[in-house]
Write a structure and sequence with these properties.
It is built from 19 helices and 24 strands. It is an alpha/beta fold. The chain folds into four domains: 131 residues, D-amino Acid Aminotransferase, Chain A, domain 1, CATH 3.30.470.20; 64 residues, Dna Ligase, domain 1 (2-Layer Sandwich); 70 residues, no CATH class; 175 residues, Mur-like, catalytic domain (UDP-N-acetylmuramoyl-L-alanine:D-glutamate ligase), CATH 3.40.1190. An eleven-stranded mixed β-sheet has the order 17-16-15-18-14-19-20-21-22-23-24, sandwiched between helices. Strands 11-6-5-12-13 form a five-stranded antiparallel β-sheet. A four-stranded antiparallel β-sheet has the order 1-4-2-3, with helices on one face. Strand 23 and strand 24 form a beta hairpin. It is elongated and about 100 Å long. It starts with 7 loop residues before the first helix and ends in a 16-residue tail after the last helix.
């Protein structure tokens, strides 16, 4: 099955680029090197440390992948096998454990299978090839075409060179006759047929969904090697070894062991969803404290969560991270261009008191309203609109909060009393943000079971009631970079609060902040989305 944003599939098939993106976002991946010859493969293997894996640079379905290689001859032979599948070859650290395939649909893991090595047992009479046909290929689930959940094991032809190399590493050939009771491994990977969906640790599931989003997919098969899928991945040295843009479903629908999973239904629900309403999530931003940056960062986090996001702010008009206008785009007409564009499924719109007074809001309701402060009046507001004091300004700014849906949230700056006074006008939830975690209003709001975002001991904290999540430390280079580049702390807090209110996971928020402004997908054009 394939469903993805433009460019996502090409990224996922580029194993080296995929690893770079995943590693930057904190997803554990095996270190590796791109090599162009058998000799270079052996040099890389020695530098990485044996044993290693050799696989095609841009292959799929496990073809051309050799595992647990420990000798020069096996590494060089594996290079030739991988070279049949791709022009370039990767050498990677071998991760010990069992192979797992997690099917991610949207923001959750809907199915998972575990692989097992395939072996035959000698009878002292039959050749390996004969034993494979009677002990392995006689399984009705195996075949030579992709309608079968498991592939047949063959030893002839370029597509089956991996199986031949596997037995040759054991000093055998297809015509060899194993002794009675001798076990011979004929396949180490790709034999995913044991359902383990109910055993997945939440940490492993979170890493799989994060890996999917980082690459830019919303449906993907994530290959993970772990010794025990019921434990956190990092504590056991596990890793994500591949992201598949077109994952097969048969292994989940017809596992050899365990119950079938309704993966087709999950995909249909994700693609078409509920037909109760046709609203897209709209985020409105108003104030004078770095509102263009807040809008931009919030749009980036929405984009990373899998939504084709439009952005209209002082810096211009953007469609799915592609800038189509470079002038101030806070006006009604610019926002309208986003809202009528059927290729977008989320919008972040910055506005101002003047634009509200002259044109009104371009939408009747919004999911999120972010208010940073009460902007100061100016000559135009005073002379043309009679906005003479803060009370009259409040009556304008309140418009943004008035239109929040009952299912939405107002993200308000708790350090601004005038902004706090708008909380009573919100039909939905109120999420406060402030610099000081111990601020009395934040403490009271938290104790009432509501959400707050703040900073304590250099840590950005997400809190609701007694539950707290430390999102990141401001001293970490990747995050201090944002502050050094001009983003102020309240700007980060407001954007994080908005993303959290939009149900974007803390892991994805953290990854988005790490890559804001420096990930290729943040600036690359999206040719299918037009103004």
């Amino acid at each position: 099955v394939k469903h993805h944003r433009d460019g996502a599939e090409s990224i996922s098939s580029d194993k080296d680029l995929t690893k770079q993106l995943l590693s930057q976002c904190g997803v554990p991946v095996p270190e590796g090197q791109l090599v162009d010859s058998p000799e270079a493969a052996w040099v890389a293997a020695q530098e990485i440390g044996l044993p290693v894996v050799v696989k095609p640079y841009d292959g799929n379905r496990g073809r051309g992948v050799s595992l647990d290689l420990q000798t020069q001859s096996s590494v060089e032979a594996a290079w030739h096998a991988a070279r049949l599948e791709s022009k370039y070859v990767l050498v990677e650290r071998y991760v010990r454990g069992e192979e797992h395939r997690l099917l991610v649909v949207g923001d959750r893991v809907v199915a998972a299978t575990r692989g097992e090595t395939v072996s035959i047992t000698g009878d002292g009479v039959s050749t390996i090839e004969q034993l494979v046909n009677t002990q392995v290929n006689n399984d009705p689930r195996r075949g030579d075409i992709e309608i079968y959940p498991l592939a047949a094991v063959r030893f002839h032809g370029p597509d089956h060179l991996i199986h031949l190399l596997e037995i040759q590493r054991q000093g055998l050939e297809p015509t060899s006759v194993p002794t009675l009771g001798q076990r011979v491994i004929v396949q180490r990977n790709g034999n995913l047929n044991i359902d383990v969906t109910d055993d997945i640790h939440p940490d492993v599931a979170a890493i799989a969904t994060l890996a999917t989003r980082v690459v830019g997919l919303d449906i993907a098969g994530i290959d993970i090697v772990a010794q025990d899928i019921t434990r956190p991945l990092l504590e056991q040295g596990g890793a994500v070894i591949e992201v598949n843009a077109g994952p097969g479903l048969l292994m989940h629908r017809k596992p050899a062991v365990g119950k079938p999973r309704p993966v087709g239904e999950a995909i249909m629900q994700h693609l078409f969803g509920s037909q109760e309403h046709a609203r897209i999530p709209i985020v409105g931003v108003i104030g004078s404290q770095q509102t263009p940056q807040i809008a931009q960062l919030t749009a980036w986090l929405l984009h990373l969560s899998g939504r084709r996001t439009g952005l209209a702010n002082q810096q211009g008009l953007f469609m799915a991270q592609r800038q189509v206008e470079s002038r101030d785009a806070r006006g009604f007409d610019f926002a309208e261009r986003l809202l009528i564009n059927r290729a977008l499924d989320a919008a972040v719109i910055e506005t101002s008191p003047r634009h509200i007074l002259e044109d009104g809001l371009p939408y009747d309701r919004c999911a999120i309203a972010i208010v940073t402060d009460m902007p100061a009046t100016d000559d135009v507001l005073r002379d043309e609109h009679d906005i003479l004091n803060e009370e009259k300004m409040r009556n304008v700014v309140r418009t943004q909060v008035d239109v929040v849906l009952a299912t939405g949230a107002a993200v308000l700056n708790a350090d601004e009393p005038a902004v706090v006074s708008l909380a009573e006008l919100c039909d939905g939830e109120v999420v406060y943000y402030a610099r000081d975690f111990n601020q009395p209003l934040l403490k009271e709001h938290r104790q009432q079971g509501h959400r707050v975002v703040s900073c304590r001991d250099g840590q950005v904290i997400l809190a609701r009631g007694e539950q707290e999540t430390a999102l990141f430390h401001l001293d970490v280079t990747l995050f201090s970079r944002l502050l050094n580049e001009g983003l102020e702390l309240p700007t980060l807090l407001a954007s994080v609060a908005a993303a959290w209110a939009l149900d974007i996971t803390p892991q994805l928020i953290r990854a988005g902040l790490k890559n804001f402004g420096q990930t290729p997908s943040a600036t690359s054009p999206n040719p299918t989305v037009s103004a």
